[in-house]
Design brief:
The structure is a homodimer. The N and C termini of chain A lie far apart (85 Å). Chain A is built from 21 helices and six strands. In chain A, helix 18 (322-350) runs antiparallel to helix 19 (359-389), helix 18 packs parallel to helix 20 and helix 20 runs antiparallel to helix 21 (431-455). The first copy, chain A, folds into three domains: 15-141, MgtE N-terminal domain-like (MgtE N-terminal fold), CATH 1.25.60; 153-272, Roll (CBS-domain); 285-455, SLC41 divalent cation transporters, integral membrane domain (Tetracycline Repressor, domain 2). In chain A, strand 5 (238-242) and strand 6 form a beta hairpin. By secondary structure, chain A is mostly helical. Chain A has helices at 15-26, 30-37, 42-51, 54-64, 70-75, 78-87, 90-98, 102-110, 114-123, 126-136, 143-146, 160-169, 195-200, 224-234, 254-272, 285-311, 314-319, 322-350, 359-389, 392-422, 431-455, and strands at residues 153-155, 179-183, 189-194, 218-219, 238-242, 248-253. The radius of gyration of chain A is 29 Å and the shape is globular. The interface between A and B is large, with 150 and 150 residues.
Chain lengths: 456, 456
């Protein structure tokens, strides 16, 4: 801990500093690099490494790799972490990894190939190594992977004074902790006390008399998405993690939960858009193509189903060519309305605001919204078709088709994710393609079918 | 603080309990309601109130409104909060509001109409009322609205022992605090010390010797989105808020920042989908229509632009009707590819991973991805058109059109949000409609234009 009172504020990363860093790299001036990078937070240095191009990054690391520490390493995104680790001299890597808490080491290990994992495990002291290997034994994306094993516990019968004396003598406390967890003789957590309450109570106060009102534990095998939900729902700051017998095995803190929440959001958003959920702005061309091509391929197949439906109606299109011009209107309105109701439903399922208790009411509301929007736009579009294309009967056809399409869109947008969720799939995954195709196909069929009946 | 050791775990809200609650409401059995609801966390009671229908909610409140406390009130979503507040007897409301910290009161006030705001302000004790009114004087969605005014500070020259003695004697400490903020004689924050470090240091230790390495303050006028970014980027647990002269005026804690992060995500996701950002699954039919209709209206206008482009090519469509069947393929592929690159760009702008430093490289990558995807799908689709519709020249036309469309989609998806961001608009807002229309229009024009040149 250094004395920061002279200059309390950390500096930030801006374009000016990035330009100065790139100049220093080009001039191979490692002194200037130190001056520019030392005042930055590790998270900003990681961002800088991600945002500059590959050749600049390699040149910077060649000059400055001895300064890379554990904190920077754990802030770097997966897309470039392997490259950075490979560039580090062995002794720098050993030093960096020994600095970290077990959960941060696990986070780094997860995304590495086995040979690099070995290098990092070898760098750890044996007690840390055992802790990390035990955490890696839990399933991926589980609470066990997320937790840090360093906990601060006290027997349930202790007083505030005993807890303070224990903390003053403890040799190895976690960097950040917010509660003292009370445990029974079998190491089962029975409550926790905030540090604020310990500090503001007299030494004689029994810890069990000042535990928090609300107390929860998380099982180590629970998925990390549930962990994020529990922290967000119950405003937790930290939460003890237990094994299947209920014994304390670690603790998860809110910064890790916030990180998971952020990743879950990103995943939902990217999945809805049909982009591989691991996509990042710093991916290369081939990783990007690999993430996007499969979903475009699916959409090509589904679009061709729409094309096949349309081709059944060639006779009516050949006679009334304006129908061809209006088809994209049906598709666009259906696609947009479906995206609206789909997005609201996927989001509400993720936040657990859409459940069995209100599903029926939500579906009924979507139906009503579909009918109202359908009637509005049918009126407008029928008039527009009349004015723009001088065809009143075509206007009637597209109006009716829009009513049907918007109802289908609103219903499919909520029913498909509900169904996927019930079947145990992620409702965000590929709902988009599925719902929009369904809407398009029904829309085209309605539009051209009505045209055949009403105009031929 | 009650002793919870006998039953440490809170119970959760599941379908079974919801059904039991609804039965108790129907039987007007308020004793059974107490038994069912008392063990629940306030956040779960709020969820229950949101998920049951309006008539059930009113019946429940009629039986149980005396039990509604401040915590439940601050957990309830805006969509139904006004209704709940109106149902509360005056004395219950007064009691509930007096329980809360100033930031929670501000959060409730923000979404109420002036007459209800008055009722709540009147319920506060005068010191709290002043604090709340001062917070309300800051702009909406600013750090000043988000902060709590209750802070725990110490003069910079104090020792650990002095801080502990002060905390033991303090009459009114915040419910949750994680740091002691050190201030100079003009109340400017100069650093902070975690409670963990205070507890683990000897009484003689100077506080300024154990401050955290990294220290930041936030100005009260900064937008809350920046607050969320700073907490997430720098892993803060709490952060002092200062006025324009740098004096301490409050503190923001991570649970509030996590909440903002969650709302910002939701906003981005809903805006991208063209749904008003305040949409919620518990909105009624009219609120839902109001949120969605404007965006559908815009998409109707833009779809008609596409229709007008197509109608310029009626001659070629009338001759080669299969073109009409293939147009939706062009639109679907363009729309999906545009959504992919748009979503990645909007997300990267929100997390500040896409900046001036890498914009050019990202645009170049999108161009490369567009070319590669274009070539792949051009080949596949040209072959498919040949096989499905027996028209090799039509295959060549749609192949070339797809290459152009996918390149336009990839570029527009990143350039439009970059431009909106540079101009100071939210890149998520309406990018979707704009980008997809642009792609569609260029795609239709390329497809039908090429058809006119190559097939007529």
């Amino acid at each position: 801990m250094t004395d920061h009172l002279a200059n309390p504020e950390d500096e930030t990363l801006d374009q000016e500093r990035i330009d100065a860093v790139l100049e220093a790299v080009e001039a191979e001036d490692s002194g200037a690099l130190d001056t520019l990078l030392d005042p930055l937070h590790a998270a900003d240095i990681a961002d800088l490494l991600e945002q500059i191009g590959g050749p600049d990054r390699r040149a910077l690391l060649a000059l400055w790799s001895h300064e890379i520490d554990g904190e920077i390493l754990s802030e770097i995104s997966d897309a470039i972490r392997e490259e950075v680790i490979e560039s580090l001299p062995r002794e720098v890597l050993v030093e960096a990894v020994r600095d970290l808490e077990s959960d941060d080491v696990v986070d780094i290990l997860e995304d590495l190939e086995p040979p690099q994992q070995g290098v990092i495990l070898d760098a750890l002291e044996s007690a840390d190594r055992v802790a990390v290997e035990q955490a890696m034994a839990f399933p991926e994306y589980s609470a066990g992977r997320l937790m840090q094993r360093e906990t601060v516990v006290a027997p349930e019968h202790w007083t505030v004074g005993e807890a303070i004396d224990f903390l003053r003598q403890a040799e190895h406390l976690p960097d950040q902790f917010y509660h003292v967890i009370l445990v029974d003789p079998r190491m089962k957590p029975v409550g926790y006390v905030t540090l604020g309450r310990i500090l503001s109570s007299g030494r004689e106060m029994a810890l069990r008399a000042i535990t928090e009102d609300s107390f929860r534990t998380i099982e180590a095998t629970e998925p990390e998405a549930d962990v994020a939900y529990i922290f967000n729902q119950y405003h937790l700051i930290s939460c003890p993690v237990v094994d299947s017998a209920g014994r304390l095995v670690g603790v998860i803190t809110i910064d890790d939960a916030m990180n998971v929440l952020d990743e879950e959001h990103e995943e939902d958003m990217l999945r809805l858009a049909g982009v591989g959920e691991e996509s990042s702005i710093s991916d290369g061309v081939w990783d990007t193509v690999k993430a996007r091509l499969p979903w475009l391929a699916i959409s090509l197949v589904t679009a061709n189903i729409g094309a096949l439906v349309i081709s059944q109606f060639e006779a009516v299109i050949a006679k009334i060519v304006v129908l061809a011009a209006l088809m994209p209107v049906v598709a666009a309105m259906g696609g947009n309305a479906a995206t609206q109701s789909l997005t609201v439903a996927v989001r509400a399922l993720a936040t657990r605001d859409l459940t069995g208790a209100n599903a029926f009411r939500v579906v009924r509301r979507e139906l009503a919204v579909g009918v109202i929007n359908g009637l509005c736009f049918a009126g407008v579009m029928a008039t527009a078709a009349w004015i723009l294309f001088g065809a009143p009967m075509v206007g009637a056809v597209i109006g009716l088709a829009l009513i049907i399409t918007l109802i289908v869109a609103a219903l499919a947008g909520v029913l498909v994710p509900l169904l996927l969720n019930r079947l145990g799939f992620d409702p965000a995954l590929s709902s988009g393609t599925f719902v929009i195709t369904m809407t398009d196909v029904i829309g085209f069929f309605a539009f051209l079918g009505l045209a055949t009946v009403m105009l031929l």
